[in-house]
User: What shape does this take?
Amino acid sequence: MKFETKAIHLGHEVDPLTGAIAAPLHLSTTFEREADGSYPRGHIYSRLSNPNRDALERSLAGLENGEGAIAFASGLAAITNVFQALLPGDHVIASQDLYHGTTHILQDIFEPWGLEVSFIDVTDTSQLEGAIQPNTKMIFLETPSNPLLKITDIAAVADIAHKAGALCVCDNTWATPLLQRPLDLGADIVVHSTTKYFGGHSDVLGGATISKVKDAFFDRMRMLQQIGGAVPAPFDCWLVLRGIQTLSCRMKNQSESAFAIAKFLQKHPHVEKVYYPGLVDHPGHDIVLKQMSQFGGMLSFQIKGNKEEALAFTGRLKIIRRATSLGGVESLIEHRASIEGPNSKTPDNLLRFSVGLENLDDLLTDLDTALTHK
Ligand SMILES: *Cc1c(COP(=O)(O)O)cnc(C)c1O
Assistant: This one.
């Protein structure tokens, strides 16, 4: 089955009891034993497993070409789970340019807990090789990265990780498996904030880890999910699974619009710099051509001016909403430095733009009007 067909049908089997095409919602927290005490239908208690969560996990594993998926209540709960599965004294190499929440949990939860963490530029393979230690157990990367859209060669990093006996973990939230499949490129685990493109409508929080093989590390992550309990509610699973059905058409459209907007902004007299991997002068352009089928719906740009002028520009927008998050049907723009806090290294005049499904000309007019202050 091709991606688009899997997205419609995996985890969306017809309900054998009623013939329902859209999956029923299973709110029950507990499931009946047989007279002999067994659980032939597989479910015991909803923290351990639930039919709606099972369906979502089957869909996610199928879309990423992994053997198993584990769904969580948020993207950061999924990322927390991956690091929790390591042991105190293990060493993690993490990309310098990461979703700020990931950096935050590494520094404020896992370093005090006993993980050793090196933040480096993983796009530089010689720097990466130099950072490997005897206790390196994981290399964690994000590509395209947040918010600078840096591109990392997944196959090259996976190769270095495997030579060191470490796992390669890739946050694939921005690309989605429609555009990029890290497990096929050699990564061992993919993590997602399903809050973003999978859900797609800014109305559900969720996360997932997807493993290439169901090995001992997968079993440990599953145990931590079931015992740790950061599980998504049945309706949240249902909403993400519904979002997945339209992922392909949303993502194709959003990628096309983002590409057009990036080219428009690059020529605009009030714009200093555009970060979008589809542009030929982007430093990761050649790698992105190898590992992504389109360039995605996210871009960042620096306006000509300071922080106040960047914020004033967003204040003049009429269609594009000022809000954090991304991957929804509506276009969202955000001043990253102010949400990332005082330690942020993001330029003060940088805005991150999640391109939605509005008409492209309307978006271009909105940007142009606000930029030129017409
Ligand atoms: C949003 C996001 C996360 C965190 O996910 P939540 O669902 O907000 O917990 C992690 N990684 C990336 C790349 C994100 O965009």
User: Anything to note?
Assistant: Residues 21 and 90 are 47 Å apart (CA to CA). The chain has two domains: 3-244, 248-372. The two ends are 50 Å apart (CA to CA). Residues 74-76, 99, 101, 142, 146, 171, 173-174, 193, 195-196, 205, 207 surround pyridoxal-5'-phosphate (CB under 6 Å).
